């Protein structure tokens, strides 16, 4: 399951594009409509990063959630997903993800609702 911020237009648009492009075999839901406690995570974490939750309950966040989504999509996407799980690409992906996530309110489609609270930037 992919859990994202449904209040953020940038996030919603990104997820919609990824679903169309990748066609992953998974459920996708905004955190605002998910029972986060039963999924093994918190609102604070869901506000901070996109989440990938496995059927076994393992929670991956941020760039690693994107890597898991790519792995699930199969084909050539799985190769890219696998590469993103390996250092040093994992470290680079994490840095890029944080820059995008921390500035999503400033990106195309971003709104004030996309902004993270100051203590989470």
From TrEMBL:
Domain of life where this protein originates: Bacteria
Protein name as annotated: Thiol-disulfide oxidoreductase
Organismal lineage: Bacteria, Bacillati, Actinomycetota, Actinomycetes, Kitasatosporales
């Amino acid at each position: 399951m992919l859990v994202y911020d449904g209040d953020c237009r940038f996030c919603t648009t990104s997820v919609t594009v990824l679903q169309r492009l990748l066609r992953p075999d998974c459920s996708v839901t905004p955190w605002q409509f998910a029972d986060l406690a039963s999924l093994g995570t918190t609102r604070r974490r869901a506000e901070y990063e996109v989440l990938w939750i496995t059927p076994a309950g393992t929670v991956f966040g941020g760039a690693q959630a994107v890597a898991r989504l790519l792995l699930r999509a199969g084909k050539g996407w799985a190769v890219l997903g696998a590469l993103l799980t390996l250092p040093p690409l994992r470290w680079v992906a994490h840095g890029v993800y944080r820059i995008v996530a921390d500035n999503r309110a400033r990106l195309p489609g971003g709104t004030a609702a996309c902004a993270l609270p100051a203590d989470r930037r």
